[in-house]
Structures are given as C-alpha cells and as structure tokens.
Amino acid sequence: MKKILLTVLLLLGISSNVNAKEIFILEADKGSDIAEVLIKGNGGYCTALINSSGTVVKTDCIRLINSKKIKILCTKKKEVCKTEKEVFDYLSVQLSSAKQGTQQEEKIEHSLKSLHQEMKYSEARKILLNAGWQGNNTRWQDIPQSGQTNILYYNNGWREVVGCTGTGTAPCRYEFHNINEKKLVVITEGECLNSNDEPAEKDETCELYVSSWFFE
Q1: Same structural domain, 158 and 145
Q2: Which pLDDT does position 28 carry in this prediction?
Q3: DSSP E strands, the chain
Q4: What is the pTM of this model?
Q5: What share of the chain is helix, strand, coil (3-state, %, to 5)?
Q6: Domain of 22, in residue numbers
Q7: What is the rounded distance in angstroms from the CA atom of residue 171 to the CA atom of residue 209?
C-alpha cells in the first residue's frame, strides 16, 4: 500500500501536531481511505485507524460516549481524551493541506519546463508568477540611480531584479522563491529595448530575453 508518512507531511511544511502535541498523524494510506493517528500526552498514548467518513475502524484507545452521545477516544489511563470528531477534523485539515501543498509544488516545478532560452523575460516572468513563484523584492535603496537596473526596477516594475552588468553580454539577474523557499535565479542578456527596438530611456518600458536559469 502507498503511504504518506509523517516525514512527508513535515517536508511539505505542515505541522503534524495540535493541542499541546496531543494528536499526531502516523500514516495516511492512499491505497484505501484509512489513516492512522496517535493520541499522546502526559505519559500515555493510543492509536486509532480512521476512514474517510470519520469512522474509527480499529483502535487500542479507550472508547467512551458521554451524556450527549459524543464519542470519545482516551489514552489507556485517560491522561488525554479527544472526541472522535475532533481527531477526524484535524486529520482532514492536515491531509487536505498536504495534498494542496503537493499539487502547488508540482505546479511550480512544471512551470520550469515552459521556460526556454531567448524567450521574452516578461513572458517567463508571467509563467513563474502564475505558477506560484514569488519574486524577491529588492530594496529600492540597493537600486542605482541610473542605468539598466534602474529602468527594469522602476519602468518595468521588475522588483525581483538584483542587478545588471554593463560589460560583456550585459547580463541581468533576477531572483524568485517558492513555497519551500527554494531560490530560482533567472539571467537575461543584452540591452533592454523599447517597442522601437531602441535602447530604453527614462520612463520607457522595455524587453529582455532569457539566457539561463538555475537553482541556488
């Protein structure tokens, strides 16, 4: 059976505990609809298998029903007690968040396959932002008062530009990050040209072309 282990949830940046670390997800079985949770606290613990409808199919916890007919799971010496609904609601939220996180990361990684050399940077930028990448916002204090970096930052609104070099192929560097704080660097080359294919001047937008990209 295919299982999502607790470590996978943690890698996705999702906390696996709640209420003073009393509920933990041990395993979530994708092959069926069964998940296993651990209730733990004050030296006691127990486990329960819960299906997608919220029914406890197997457990070594003490099972109680209070005067309001609410089903309760308790550790063996009743150090910690949780309603079955509370446990299931927590499980549902965490697994839903894990699924959304996985889908979002897949979308972000897939966006890189749409990039290619010599494509317009404005098009590459749109693809990355739509996929969930976020441009690192360079401080305005770090932007020179003139030159290509200044034009890209203010005229084009490309706040993710880190800087441009006026020598050689005149490369410019841009930085993005994703939900896992992975840094993506995009490099363009050449002089930024306006709609008339002339070097951009003050208050003119312009275009550059992608030469490479990489993780750092």
Answers
A1: yes
A2: 62
A3: 3-5, 23-29, 35-41, 44-50, 56-59, 62-65, 71-74, 81-83, 134-135, 161-164, 172-177, 183-193, 207-215
A4: 0.55
A5: 25, 35, 40
A6: 3-110
A7: 10
Count of the separate structural domains present in the chain: 2
Judge if 37 and 95 occupy the same domain.
yes
Q: How many CB atoms lie within 10 A of CB 102?
A: 13
Do 119 and 96 have their domain in common? no
Place of tokens 């696996």: 16
Contact yes or no for 207/188 (Cβ under 8 A) = no
pLDDT of residue 101: 61
Q: What is the pLDDT of residue 74?
A: 94
In angstroms, the first-to-last Cα distance of the chain is: 36
| Dihedral angle sign, alpha carbons of residues 50, 55, 58, 64 | positive
Q: What does the pLDDT look like over 146-203, one tens digit per residue? A: 999 999 999 999 999 999 998 889 999 999 998 878 899 999 999 999 999 999 887 8
Question: Which residues make Cβ contacts (< 8 Å) with residue 203, sequence separation at least 6?
Answer: 155
Phi, psi (degrees; rounded to nearest 5) at 5: -80, 165
pLDDT value at 214 more than 90: yes
Compute the chain's Rg from CA coordinates: 26
Quick count: other Cβ atoms within 10 Å of Cβ 202?
9
Is the predicted pLDDT of residue 206 greater than 80, yes or no? yes
Task: Looking at the structure, tell me whether residues 146 and 86 fall in a common domain.
Answer: no
Q: Tokens 């990050």 map to which residue?
A: 177
Helix-helix angle 121-130:84-111, to 10 degrees? 170
Helical H segments across 12-119, by residue range: 84-111
